[in-house]
Write a structure and sequence with these properties.
Elements lengths: L1 E6 L9 E7 L4 H24 L7 H4 L19 H13 L6 E7 L5 E10 L5 E2 L6 E2 L4 H14 L25 H5 L13 H9 L7 H7 L16 H15 L3 H13 L5 E2 L14 E2 L8 E2 L8 H7 L5 E3 L1 H12 L6 H7 L11 E2 L4 E2 L9 E7 L1 E8 L4 E7 L17 H14 L5 H6 L4 E4 L6 E6 L6 E7 L4 E7 L4 E5 L6 E7 L2 E7 L1
Antiparallel strand pairs: 1-2, 3-4, 3-15, 4-5, 6-10, 7-10, 8-9, 11-12, 13-14, 14-15, 16-17, 17-20, 18-19, 18-21, 21-22
Length: 523
């Protein structure tokens, strides 16, 4: 005999949900645990997710958030070094919000990472501080991983962007075989979004939160009628990237997540990135996520409560199931959008705007771009599968920045009751701090010149630096007069260092090494 309970449902006209709890031969302790898990799952479905969708990161939703600094936040005065300035900005803004945990990383032009974390990774059974090593879900930043993998297969000649998907996969209900791979990756297929436009998928997950979902199960049961004919409009749909995963498997004969690992994760050296739950992180720490289950502004530790997360991640599958750290996200965006993986023509295809609606948000083939200060070009993606993430690469700066949070609350500038700041605000504050950073003034640097000798000065192809410092392991940094880091070089066991200036334009620079600085003229 099986037992069920009924919970009211305010969605779909208020039809109640009939939920299986346990069978007659279930032990009393297991009955209590299963009841708690099912109740928590149904709370997720009927409260938090009745107000927002499960996996939705369309660039349009974020476009207005990245235009200017959050109101009421003033970045601290620049400190002596850029990392110290970033530390101060991160610590200042994260101290002003109740969100449980933030993690951030910036890959600087010299190849060095700045990293910082704040808050908690767990509350139950005991409090655990969040560190820069903790993994979080990246949500739909999974899409550029999948898109890049598929584009690499295109480069290998295994398919073409304008091939129809029906040549390789299907048929599936409500999925036109005439849809092209390009239309799939650019969200111009017209396909219904099985996660955000069909409540049945989230309700099925709520009824069995530990269930491991398969491609065929989702495609045969949860994709509704198309929204428009292929190629006639743009609409963000997770179904596109579910099918992209199916396509990778059809082309390679391997599980899609293994191909992503072979083509991207391992070659790039992403040691903190896993396709969860199809891969497990082993001993690496995985931050819990905190969710506002009751819609009252408070949050609970979801995994600490005993709730299984594998079911939700498998439901998101190739549309949003990867887990990672900001450090890996920063490296991934720099490798892909910095032109190190794809051929130039392929990267140009990936960065073609298929939205074209004038909002300032762009979307290519699994790649998004947003309005940013100083109209800086940027490419990357954002994600939201309870965990929230954003990772962008800025080509003109050769810099990438990633921020994650382990809390489903967000800042709505139009709603005074929302949290003060969220991950998007942290991201923007760090970006503005980087752009506005200036090292100590040139006049002050010249005063310290006796501790750092440059010759010849003015210099042409090379300058030699004599300095007082430790025996090795330091870096020489070259800044322009606007305070922007231009170049760097690691110093090992030397007191007389030759710095290559051949790639620098003529003009004035500041050289900084071992806490000492000097003014340099490049002829």
């Amino acid at each position: 005999m099986s037992f069920y309970f009924i919970i009211p449902n305010n969605r779909n006209g208020g039809f109640p949900l009939l939920c299986h709890i346990f069978s007659q031969n279930t032990s009393t302790s297991d009955m209590k645990k299963q009841f708690a898990l099912h109740l928590l799952a149904l709370l997720l479905v009927t409260t938090a997710f009745s107000q927002k969708n499960i996996l939705t990161e369309s660039p349009k939703a974020l476009a207005d958030r990245l235009r200017e600094l959050p109101q009421g936040f003033t970045p601290p005065t620049s400190a002596a070094t850029l990392p110290e300035t970033l530390d101060a900005v991160f610590d200042s803004i994260t101290a002003l919000t109740p969100i449980k945990g933030f993690n951030a990383a910036m890959l600087l032009p010299d190849g060095i990472y700045w990293k910082r974390a704040s808050g908690l990774a767990e509350e139950l059974p005991t409090a655990v501080p969040l560190t820069t090593e903790h993994l979080m879900g990246m949500g739909s930043i999974s899409k550029p991983f999948v898109a890049t993998t598929l584009l690499l297969l295109v480069e290998e000649g295994q398919c073409a962007l304008d091939d129809s998907i029906g040549q390789y996969i299907g048929p599936y209900p409500n999925v036109a075989g005439s849809i092209t791979i390009r239309q799939l990756l650019s969200h111009r297929s017209g396909l219904n979004d099985y996660l955000n436009e069909n409540p049945a998928s989230s309700e099925a997950w709520g009824n069995d939160p530990a269930h491991r979902w398969t491609f065929d199960e989702i495609l045969n049961g949860y994709v509704l009628a198309p929204n428009f004919a292929p190629g006639t409009a743009w609409s963000y749909s997770n179904t596109n990237y579910l099918l992209a995963g199916v396509l990778i498997e059809a082309l390679t004969g391997q599980p899609w997540y293994q191909v992503v690992r072979q083509k991207l994760i391992e070659p790039i050296g992403l040691t903190h990135t896993f396709v969860y739950p199809f891969e497990t992180p082993g001993s690496q720490p995985f931050s819990h996520v905190f969710a506002d289950l009751l819609g009252n502004g408070g949050v609970v530790d979801v995994q600490g409560f005993g709730f299984p997360d594998e079911g939700l991640f498998s439901l998101a599958t190739s549309a949003g199931c990867l887990i990672t750290t900001p450090e890996d996200l920063a490296r991934f965006t720099e490798r892909v959008f910095g032109g190190h993986l794809l051929q130039p023509a392929t990267l140009l295809e990936m960065e073609t705007d298929y939205v074209q609606d004038g909002s300032g948000a762009l979307y290519g083939l699994g790649a998004a771009a947003f309005p940013a200060p100083e109209n800086l070009e940027n490419w990357g993606h954002n994600g939201d599968l309870i965990y929230k993430s954003i990772a962008l690469y800025f080509p003109s700066e050769n810099m990438s920045l990633a921020v994650q949070q382990n809390d489903d609350r967000s800042h709505d500038p139009t709603d005074p009751s929302s949290v003060a700041y969220d991950g998007n605000d942290v991201f923007l504050a760090l970006l503005v701090a980087y752009l506005n950073y200036s090292p100590p003034s040139a006049a002050k640097e010249v005063e310290n010149e006796h501790g750092l000798m440059l010759f010849p000065n003015p210099a042409w192809e090379q300058v030699f630096v004599k300095y007082r410092g430790s025996s090795g392991g330091e870096f020489a940094y070259i800044y322009n007069l606007q305070g922007r880091l231009i170049a760097s070089q690691r110093i090992e066991n030397q007191k007389l260092v030759g710095l290559d200036l051949s790639s620098l334009p003529t003009g004035g620079y500041i050289v900084r090494l071992g806490g000492q600085s000097a003014f340099l003229t490049k002829e």
